[in-house]
Amino acid sequence: MTSIRRTLTVRLLVWMGLLVLLAGGGLYVGIRGALLRQFDATLHARASMLQSGTKWDGTKVDVDFAPEAMPWYRAGPGAEYFEVELIGTLGSPPSVLVRAPAPSANPSAARWAEPFGLADGTFDLRLPDGRPGRVEIRVFRPLPEEDLDKPGNEAQRDAAKKSAPEVRLVVGMGRENLEGVLGVIGLGFLGAGVVLGVGLVVGVRRALASGLSPLESLSAQVRGIDADALSTRLEGSGLPDELRPIHGRLNELLERLEGAFARERRFTTGAAHELRTPVAELRALLEVSLSRERTAAERRATLGSALKVTLGMEDLVRALLTLARKGGEEGPAVEAIDPGPVIVGVVERHEDTAQGRGGGIERIGEGGALVSANRAVLESVLDNVMANAVEYASPAPRVVWRVWDEGGEVMIEVSNPAAGVGPGDVERFFEPFWRRSESRTDRRHLGMGLAVSRALAESMGGQLTAAIGADGIVRVRLTLRRAEGG
Amino acid sequence: MRVLLAEDSEVLQKTLAQGLREQGYAVDAVGDGRRALINARTTEYDVIVLDLMLPVLDGLSVLRQLREKGVRAAVLVLTAKGTVEDRVLGLRSGADDYLVKPFAFAELLARVEALARRVHGVRGATIRVGPLEVDMSAKEARVTGERGRLVELAPREYAVLEYLAHRAGKPVSRAELEEHLYDDRSQVMSNTIDVTVSSIRAKLGAAGCPPIIHTRRKIGYVLAEREP
Questions:
Q1: CA-based nearest distance B193→chain A, Å
Q2: Mean pLDDT over residues A200-215, rounded?
Q3: If pLDDT is split at 50, 70 and 90, which confidence band does A92 have?
Q4: What is the pLDDT of residue A379?
């Protein structure tokens, strides 16, 4: 299992470690280069001093070397080296004109700078006393003595210039001090790197722990939510801006889930509840009948009652299946039909009931538009809506039908006064098994009529909605698509 | 024993009432809460079988009002609501027992019997009075001893004997017997109880039982081993 904290820790440490290595390495290389350039500048100055002291008088090369003026060439620990050689001709070895005293103490190392031959430049090498060192080699023709520069000596000076032999100057210095300084710097860098690394590990872990704590808190809250705790809402105080949208969405999702679970639970409980009574009826009928010998007439009466109960259960199961199929199957075949005759038929069926309760049914608007619907399904939906309106309206109900078309849709609305119905009741009209009263005196009412009607309306591409106005009038509206050519 | 059955399902009401009557109970059946409340307050029932989802007045309201008015009949709540919360609510509202639909009729009978015993302070399923043994679960009476044997009683006779056994040692008036053993459908003649008791006495004597049902002039009857 991947962990954001572990992944971030590893990645941050790797990247920061690399940055520290690169920065430390770069700094070390820079310091080393600067120190080396400074070292080479000293070497170069030494070489220039000796070169300027090397002159040609036309017959021999003089090297102006005064040991007392150049104490760094004295033999001893840390001594520097130099030698000036006259380069021979025809491959003969160069002859040493002068050299620092130190190498003479170690004759075996007399040719210490031999491997570099006549190349000009600066090189690393091991000095005659075995120390690591660095040399600058110069091959040049010495300038004539200053005396030849005097006026009147021009011809002699020119001749000396032409006849001057090639000379090789080798100047060497030990690098132990430089290496020592570089070693100290390197160790310092290493130590600083270790401290920085430990600091980074601790710092990164703490920073991530602190930075990710809101996320982990949110995660812990989410982990604690299961199907039995959907009423829980995630605590959002102190959440960073990045997590606020997630927190908000999760709470919205929880609210929807809680609502969906509650509806499912009500549906399941309602279905089980509705089935309990007819099952109890069947069981009681059979058990009481079987408890003693019965006459044929008694048995027939029992079977008749059982059949009646079974037919009621069949209605319930059919309604449940209609709801279960909602959205899962193709809807009924629709055609362009005039809803007028369907409405008239429905009104005729319920008019007597409405009048029996001291009221009546009134129709407003002719409509006339064709709707896209299935005639039998439309009739079933309207019949159910009308039955509810007539039966549950206030005493002496005045039920009003309105039909009108609007923006490609046809509205069929049934409105009736319904005392005691609140907005909360209207929201639950379409919930299966919902009844305003918990009694079920009349077994025809399963509390599923409007739920099934809505499913049927949607199967035709329509909508069935309900609302209650401030005047206490409940309006149930069926919206259907206007048929082409209607 | 007299039972009030308050159930709005017509099929269930009719079937349960028939089954209970066949077991010797006097049963009054009503279909709504208001009538249940009126019946329970005007008649002395031993057991009330009460559906919770009643029209007009729901079962819980009926139950609460009955307890407030001091009605002491045992109440068996019969309902399709079977959650723990529903059962707890029902029992805390004054119900003595709770039966969730669907149920076995035999279980309903057993619970009604148990509640009827509890109302009269009887613990076991058998009541002994002298040599007479009344087995309320088997619905039969037996005379013990060498000459003892099963007493063949008609359902109504058994019901009278069982009620007297529940109140053994105490006088029971004819009116009380009529109230507890005959429902609203029964037509009770003025001497019905006397005729029934006389028949029981004859059958007990034939089964070898000494006189055990004693007449208390102007009061009624007492079931006791010796005449008090």
A1: 27
A2: 91
A3: low
A4: 85
Residues of chain B with pLDDT > 70, as a percent, come to: 99
Which residues of A have a CB under 8 Å from any CB of B?
269, 273-274, 276-277, 279-285, 287-288, 291-292, 305, 308-309, 437-441, 443
> Per-residue pLDDT averaged across A143-151, rounded?
79
Q: CB–CB of B80 and A439 under 8 A?
A: no
- For residue A458, give the nearest of A323, A290, A348, A314 by alpha carbon: A323
User: How deeply is B199 buried, as exposed, middle or buried, from its count of CB atoms within 10 A (0-12, 13-18, 19+)?
Assistant: middle
Residue A420 near residue A257, CB atoms below 8 Å: no
Using the predicted structure, report yes or no on whether residue B209 has a pLDDT greater than 90.
Answer: no
pLDDT at B88 over 90: no
Q: Is B22–A288 a contact, with Cβ atoms under 8 angstroms apart?
A: yes
* Residue among B8, B83, B106 minimizing CB distance to A439: B8
pLDDT of residue A440: 46
**Rounded to the nearest 10 degrees, what angle do helices B105-119 and A244-290 cross at?**
90
User: Quick one: which of A314, A330, A349, A342 has its CA closest to A446?
Assistant: A314
**Is the pTM of the predicted complex or chain greater than 0.90?**
no
Please answer yes or no on whether A439 and B82 come within 8 Å at the CB atom. Answer: no
CA angle, residues A84, A90, A93, in degrees to nearest 5 = 35
Question: CB distance B102–A283 less than 8 Å?
Answer: yes
Distance of residue B181 Cα from the nearest chain A Cα, in angstroms: 21
Query: Could you tell me which chain B residue has the CA closest to the CA of A272?
Result: B80
Q: Are B66 and B37 in contact (CB under 8 A)?
A: yes
Q: Which residues contact A98 (CB under 8 A, 6 or more apart)?
A: A63, A65, A83, A84
Beta-strand relationship, A473-481 and A463-468: antiparallel
> Are A440 and B53 an interchain contact pair (Cβ–Cβ within 8 Å)?
yes
Question: Does an H or E element contain B4, and which?
Answer: strand B2-6
Least Cα distance to B183 among B50, B52, B6, B3 occurs for B3
Residues of A in Cβ contact (< 8 Å) with B32? 439, 441
Q: Is the ipTM value over 0.90, yes or no?
A: no
Q: pLDDT tens digits, residue range A104-134?
A: 445 444 566 667 776 788 988 888 778 888 9
